[in-house]
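for the recovery benchmark. tokens below, seq after
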């Protein structure tokens, strides 16, 4: 096929990067970021280096102009990744941030840690990075720019076993902590694989384009298609406190499965914006975020969602739970989210609930 990922994460001259059932969530927000003046994020100096703590500190001004796509916890440390090869981390719940040392400027799209020290980052140009010090420094395990297959998701079950997902059905796995990565075909079609999630029992799920969902009952050793409730792309997955699985994506569509992908029920939602990230907070509240300032909250394990008022009109791409609530990440860096902001909001009127819209 002639589809081409060249230019993803670099200045774009056309809109042909991804095709299929909808543009990638990462590409959508990358378009915004790459329209900005490059010097806005280069004020911190060249990527990498071994400067002092002061030299590596990210100023509030720089942080507010960064596109940050994904975030996770490494023990008590918070770690986020995004454009220009940026990895930033915080040891004070997001009050201040330091910049990690990375070898390149390719856009980074996903991050995962298995403990407070050991983590991986993936991104454009087929890049995989690993850290053994909580995200302060990163070494390159894979770099394949000529393949033109950006990576979108990473998941590790322990220090040795992990998988990464990417464009055109790219699926790589490792059993030695990333020293070697082996490609594997889990889907006959070359659809983009956007997100992966797991639950406490070892079951795993993958969200992909054009309504594609895959599930595994054996920690990723085998995969099979799940019954899909929707023909549009799914960009994310969240497990709920009651053991269910949520899949979300284009046009505000959210679906819940109580049997891990066999059957799905549309969640009532007050939003239609494309949803690109989400997480379950310590309280059990589920927060999903996306384009046009969309922040949706559920306090009934994903059966219904209501829009959180008063949010900035920006694109959000990730939610990271903290001790006091959560942080939202997107095209303006980091924005605090307080659960109390929706506690006083009236619940959605059950009589007015409508199923999520289907594909156009």
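predicted aa per position
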């Amino acid at each position: 096929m002639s589809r081409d990922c060249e230019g993803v994460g670099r200045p774009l001259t056309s809109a042909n990067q991804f095709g299929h059932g909808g543009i990638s969530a990462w590409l959508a927000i990358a378009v915004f970021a790459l329209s900005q003046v490059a010097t806005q994020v280069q004020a911190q100096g060249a990527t990498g280096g071994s400067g002092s703590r002061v030299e590596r500190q990210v100023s509030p001004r720089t942080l507010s102009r960064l596109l940050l796509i994904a975030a996770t916890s490494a023990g008590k440390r918070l770690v986020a990744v995004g454009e220009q090869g940026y990895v930033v981390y915080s040891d004070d719940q997001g009050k201040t941030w330091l910049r990690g040392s990375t070898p390149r400027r390719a856009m980074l799209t996903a991050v995962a840690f298995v403990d407070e020290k050991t983590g991986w980052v993936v991104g454009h140009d087929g890049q995989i990075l690993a850290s053994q010090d909580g995200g302060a420094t990163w070494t390159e395990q894979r770099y394949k720019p000529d393949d033109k297959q950006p990576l979108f998701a990473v998941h590790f079950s322990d220090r040795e076993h992990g998988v990464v997902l990417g464009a055109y059905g790219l699926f790589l796995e490792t059993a030695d902590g990333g020293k070697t990565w082996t490609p594997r075909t889990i889907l006959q079609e070359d659809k983009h694989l956007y997100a992966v999630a797991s639950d406490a029992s070892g079951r795993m799920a993958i969200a992909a384009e054009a309504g594609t969902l895959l599930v595994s009952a054996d920690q990723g050793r085998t995969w099979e298609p799940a019954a899909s409730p929707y023909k549009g792309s799914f960009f994310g997955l969240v497990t709920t406190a009651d053991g269910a699985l949520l899949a979300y994506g284009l046009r505000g569509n959210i679906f819940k499965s109580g049997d891990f992908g066999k059957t799905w029920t549309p969640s009532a939602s007050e939003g239609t914006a494309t949803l690109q990230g989400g997480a379950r907070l310590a309280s059990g509240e589920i927060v999903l975020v996306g384009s046009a300032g969309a922040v949706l909250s559920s306090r009934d394990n994903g059966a219904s969602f209501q829009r959180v008022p008063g949010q900035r009109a920006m694109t959000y791409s990730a939610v990271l739970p903290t001790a006091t609530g959560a942080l939202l990440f997107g095209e303006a860096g980091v924005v605090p989210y307080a659960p109390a902001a929706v506690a006083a909001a009236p619940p959605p009127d059950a009589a007015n609930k409508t199923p999520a819209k289907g594909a156009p």
